[in-house]
Amino acid sequence: MNKRFLKLFVLCFVAMFSFVFIGCKASAPENTDQNKTDTATDSTGQNEIADTSETTTSIKSAITTAQKSITGAQTNASLPENESDYQTGVYEISSAGNYYFAGNLSGAITVNKKSGDVHLFLNGVTLSVENANAISAKTGVNLVITLMGENTLQNSKSAENGSAEHVIKAKDKLTINGSGSLTINSTKSAIGCDGTFWGLGGTLNLTAANKGITADSIYIAGSVINGVSCGGDLLHAESEYDEVATAPEFSFDRGFVYIERGEVKTATDATILGDGIQADSFVYIKGGEIDISTTPTWNDAYVATEDNEKGMYKKSGSTYEKISRESVKKGSTYCALKESVKCIKVGEIDYYLASDTKKENELEVASEKYTILIEGGELKLYSADDAIHCNSGAVIISGGDIEITTLDDGITADTTLKVMGSAVIDIKSCYEGLEAETIEISGGDTTISAIDDGVNATNSDLSEKEQAQVCQINITGGRLDVSVNPSKDSDGIDSNGGLTISGGIVITRGPNSQTASPIDASNTVVVSGGVLITIGNAPGSTGSQGRFAPGPGGAVQGGMSEGTWSISSSLVKTQSSSAGLSKGDHSITIGTTKIEYTNSYAYSGYTTVIASASATIK
User: Which of 336, 352, 375, 476 is the most buried (most CB within 10 A)?
Assistant: First the structure.
């Protein structure tokens, strides 16, 4: 909602904070050419959407390479049958082999440099150390830990001159497998790994003053990660680029989080004071269960340093609510988050040049390859910050079942956001639902209940004129159901550039006033196919044009906010000033197709259907 004060007319109609249910949903056609660009800048102001197929291929190639590197030792979770094939009671290890530990341990386990493949079997172990790692492996060690039974490792810091340490520290790669569990209580991060962390089995219950697991990369295929309390991120993948001679290049081989199966979750009363999952380069979720709730810390007396400053909230009692940037004034006091508490976040790679001996100038690797790729899994995300956020890059969702509750944006990307395939997205409450410079919906089933715009193509770093030349929304398939509160000043779908609807089912609502619209675009809105249903107070509602009446050649001109409309002459308009507006369940029948939806609020104005044939609205 970046243009609210410029609007003299208001467009169609969208609803806010309507919790949209869909019983017996009509299926929508899907555009199967998932990654390709399907618009180019033209006379109607439609802009390009980037082809993301090369990035997707590179991510999958990086994971294939990682999978091929997995050894039999990493997947082996069975203690050798012959006692001669493993050693017991060895706390300082200097050679490859199998080592078995059980019961109360008398001291820390240390694996010395260049020991090679070392496999630790922990069976009902309890160990507590002070100012030290409970388990540490130096360089030249491929460490595998197999969990048997219930294990507990913890460390503490002495009152005087004590040092905070990871409970488990590995200089190279670290693998955890097995069918047992490990509870960790750490004065630093629970697990710190300079190489790749492989979670191939076992249950990890993590309490840490800093992060849960921090590693160069994190690969989860079977482990259950349970965040109990973390002073920082639960999962944190970051490559070390300090004191480099020249700027590093973006790499898909480092700084990633990959989840194939298993679970990443936070306990019922967990305290996670950072991001749930954070990665330098990409997050790729192919399966598994992810249930993350992050914990905000607030500055309730933040003084805005400029007009229109981002990220401001207001507080009423104990409840926080995000406010629009347009309402923020320099010098006024607001509430703001002290730390990032996103559920899933990517980007960017930070580094210091060697010439910066005092590390005063942290730099970032510029790239549009930063990506969040979701192809499957069940995700439940709760946050006061953005639930899913990619800096400088793209979010691509082609599968999975995603449920989001947030005070900020549901899913946001700095460049491109794509929803396709079989993805099911239910954004139960948010400030804005989907936000990116360009947005493409070619499949899936997306439901959004928003305070501000439900779907917003924007780039706040650009002027309005510049945004009009790059921002774009394309809807070619799938089902999109957007609700906004009718008493608010919010657009259901808002593009600061072009907007094209050529397929799928689009249900969008707007406020009862004429301060906003169900659909709004700075450039032309092109409707050439699919089913478009708008609910709410149509712009210029006293005139036929405001009622969505196609003119000669299908064009609708005037009374359409900042954009003009171009509707195919092959499409038919059906409109009602009574049916389909009340709170509750409704249906629209077009031929033999029945589309059902639920309004969480009562709306005034019109229910308008643009489709291939006339519709019956109930």
Answer: 476
What was the pLDDT predicted at 375? Answer: 98
- pLDDT confidence band for 30 (50 / 70 / 90): very low
The amino acid occupying position 131 is N
Question: What pLDDT is stored for residue 546 in this prediction?
Answer: 36
- Tell me the residue type at 274: G
Query: Which H or E element spans position 261?
Result: strand 256-272
**Is 192 buried (19+), middle (13-18) or exposed (0-12) by CB count in 10 A?**
buried
First to last CA, the chain: 31
Say how far apart CA 292 and CA 381 lie, in whole Å: 5
Per-residue pLDDT, 293: 98
348 or 413: whose pLDDT is higher?
413
Secondary structure (3-state) at 420: coil
Length of the chain: 618
Q: Which residues in 323-398 belong to E strands, given as ranges?
A: 333-337, 344-346, 350-351, 363-364, 371-374, 378-383, 388-390, 394-397
| Rounded CA separation 612/618 (Å) | 18
Tokens 């450039």 found at: 523
Q: How far is CA 155 from CA 93, 249, 273, in A?
A: 20, 37, 21
pLDDT the model gives residue 353: 87
| DSSP helix/strand/coil, 206 | strand
pLDDT band at 562 (very low <50, low <70, confident <90, very high): very low
Structure tokens that stand for 290 in this block = 């992810």
Q: CA 318, CA 225: separation in Å to the nearest integer?
A: 31
Tell me 244's DSSP state. B
Q: What is the DSSP letter of 67?
A: H
Query: What is the structure's pLDDT at 549?
Result: 37
For 403, 418, 438, the CA distances from 421, given in Å and listed in that order, are: 17, 10, 18
Q: Over 529-596, what HEC string results?
A: CCEEEEEECCCCCCCCCCCCCCCHHHEECCCCCCCCEEECCCCEEEEECCCCCCCEEEEEEECCEEEE
34-48, 377-391, 599-613: the lowest-pLDDT one:
34-48
Which among 500, 437, 392, 412 has a CA at the least distance from the CA of 40? 500
CA–CA dist 397, 480 (Å, integer):
14
Kind of pairing between the strands at 333-337 and 181-186: unpaired
The two structure tokens encoding residue 592: 């033999």
Q: Is the dihedral of CA 487, 493, 495, 500 positive or negative?
A: negative
DSSP string covering 437-452:
SEEEEEEEEEEEEESS
Whether the predicted pLDDT of 32 surpasses 60: no
Instruction: Answer yes or no: is pLDDT of 167 > 60.
Output: yes
d(CA 233, CA 339): 10
Q: Are strands 616-617 and 235-237 parallel, antiparallel or unpaired?
A: unpaired
Cβ-based neighbours of 592, under 8 Å, separated by 6 or more: none
Of all residues in the chain, the percent with pLDDT exceeding 70 is 89
| φ, ψ for residue 466, nearest 5 deg | -65, -40
What pLDDT is recorded for position 538?
Answer: 54
Question: Tokens 């706040």 identify what position?
Answer: 460
Which among 211, 208, 150, 199 is positioned nearest to 174, based on CA atoms? 199
The CA-CA-CA angle for residues 82, 88, 94, to 5°, reads: 110
| Sign of CA pseudo-dihedral 615, 562, 435, 330 | negative
**Could you tell me which residues come within 8 angstroms of residue 9 by beta carbon, excluding any fewer than 6 positions away?**
514, 539, 540, 559, 560, 561
Contact 235, 276 (CB under 8 A): yes
